[in-house]
Amino acid sequence: MSGPLLTDEDRAVVAAQLGRQPRAIRAVAHRCPCGNPDVIETSPQLADGTPFPTLYYLTCPRANSAIGGLEASGLMRQMTERLRTEPELAAAYRAAHESYLARREQIGHVERIAGISAGGMPNRVKCLHVLVAHCLAAGPGVNPLGDEALALLPPWWSAGPCVPRPPRSAPLGHVNRPESRA
Fold first, then answer.
1. Cβ of 166: how many Cβ atoms within 10 Å?
2. CA 65 to CA 63: how far, in whole Å?
3. Is there a contact between 79 and 150 (Cβ–Cβ < 8 Å)?
């Protein structure tokens, strides 16, 4: 993937979604059906050199809220237990971890986070937000537990955009996705 296209409008939407300026943003990894970014791809290192292992960051506050409800329900604990008792699921989840690491490594190597993905991968589930963001960015079938969590979410976009798009100052570009989705 050569220089990712990211418009000023996308940056403004993500900042409004987060309530702050995003850090290490590289690209829009997925767009909500409403048209706004809902997952961004980030650099593995912040501008000050701090490692930043979260490659895919879910930005939509409605999606984040819905996922918070899933986390509060005990779903992560159930998923973690299934990883211990379902070898095929555990293998697919490990493959998701490897996919995550491979994509981040394509962007840049940061020794302090080498081998560390996010969301608890590959042995447990500690953040459904990360797993759903990975699922949305990489597509179905890459992260089985992200797929499961996504399927449980209500259509967060159905009420329209979570934040309004700013007036367009330039034509919007295409959606950037990791190479595996291009």
1. 15
2. 5
3. no
d(CA 28, CA 137) in angstroms, rounded, equals 9
Domain range list for the chain? 8-159
**How does residue 165 score in pLDDT terms, banded at 50, 70 and 90?**
confident
The residue ranking higher by pLDDT, 116 or 179, is 116
Strands 25-31 and 37-42: antiparallel
- The model's pTM: 0.88
Axis crossing angle, helix 144-152 with helix 128-138, rounded to the nearest 10: 100
**Contacting residues for 146 by C-beta, under 8 A, at least 6 apart:** 96, 128, 131, 132, 133, 134, 135, 136
DSSP 34: T
| CA 1 – CA 111 distance, rounded (Å) | 22
* Rounded Cα–Cα distance for residues 40 and 32 (Å): 11
